[in-house]
Design a protein that fits this description.
- The protein contains four helices and eight strands, in the order αββββαααββββ.
- It is an alpha+beta fold and about 140 residues long.
- The chain has two domains: about 80 residues, no CATH class; about 50 residues, no CATH class.
- The strands form four sheets. Strands 1-4 form a two-stranded antiparallel sheet. Strands 2-3 form a two-stranded antiparallel ribbon. Strands 5-8 form a two-stranded antiparallel ribbon.
- A hairpin with a 1-residue loop joins strand 6 and strand 7.
- The radius of gyration is 18 Å and the shape is elongated.
- The protein starts with a helix and ends with a strand.
- Bound molecules: protoporphyrin IX containing FE.
- Protoporphyrin IX containing FE binds next to helix 4.
- GO terms for molecular function: metal ion binding; monooxygenase activity.
- This is Cytochrome.
- InterPro entries: Cyt_P450 (IPR001128), Cyt_P450_sf (IPR036396), Cytochrome_P450_Monooxygen (IPR050665).
């Protein structure tokens, strides 16, 4: 839930671009051939109409009932893209393994020197880096 909430507020891929090679229907939207679509993940992930008035807040509990029930639209959360091209399964397993290996040996806390200034250079990242203090267990 924490990983999903981080990906909601700070999606590593902030937008996806899709090209319609042939006329396509998406719900009641008709997309002509040749149209380029930009799917603004970052904006969709923070839209209060989808996530509620607390959309800007870090609340992992919104994923308690799974990804599809986390927002008002079951397709609103797609930080890994959609369908056969998604790398969600592999990336989440990899992240869980990495966290398990770290948490086996260390507890950690955010350093008081950390300042929260997310900015985007290709991908969102902490402008002044993220200082973490590790405590060996
Ligand atoms: C937080 C982790 C990750 C996020 C948020 C992420 C997100 C994405 C997104 C949004 C796409 C575009 C999907 C589309 O075209 O619709 C993508 C594609 C891809 N990702 Fe990731 N990814 C992550 C981790 C990884 C990892 C760990 C790997 C491999 C080691 C990986 C390999 C790929 C590859 C090969 C593609 C291209 C797939 C294709 O075009 O068919 N990703 N990823």
């Amino acid at each position: 839930m924490i990983l999903y909430e981080v990906l909601r507020l700070y999606p590593p891929v902030i937008a996806l671009y899709q090209h319609a090679y042939k006329e396509t229907k998406i719900g009641n939207l008709s997309v002509q051939a040749g149209i380029d679509l930009t799917l603004l993940i970052l904006l969709i992930n923070r839209d209060p109409q989808l996530w509620g008035d607390d959309a800007e807040e870090f609340k992992p509990g919104r994923f308690t009932e799974g990804v599809s029930k986390s927002s008002k639209d079951q397709t609103a959360f797609f930080p890994f893209g959609w369908g056969t091209r998604t790398c969600q399964n592999f990336a989440i397993i990899e992240a869980k393994i990495a966290f398990a290996m770290i948490l086996k040996h260390f507890s950690f806390e955010l350093s008081p020197s950390y300042t929260h200034v997310p900015y985007t250079v290709m991908t969102p990242q902490p402008q002044h880096e993220a200082q973490i203090i590790l405590h060996p267990l």
